[in-house]
Amino acid sequence: NFGSLLGLCLITQILTGLFLAMHYTSDISTAFSSVTHICRNVNYGWLIRNIHANGASFFFICIYMHIARGLYYGSYLYKKTWNIGVVLLLLVMMTAFVGYVLPWGQMSFW
Q: What is the pTM of this model?
């Protein structure tokens, strides 16, 4: 069931995000250096960051498979449920975008 996988991915993202937030600095001038500090100096910081980054990709894979299953079985006929799912998808996409630009690396400026 992809709903269960989505829940597991969400819990993993929240936990790793909390661990990363303990060492992250949100100031524009020091944000990128705090990310490198997490990867180089924090115990298993590189692992937590990679789990967080790859977990986001896996989360979206599960979301798209969940949507595909819903399309295949005709779940879009339940308008309210489908619309709530679309709103949740848009919220997750916005959250992922913010998380993508948060480190203020070179890719954040593109």
A: 0.85
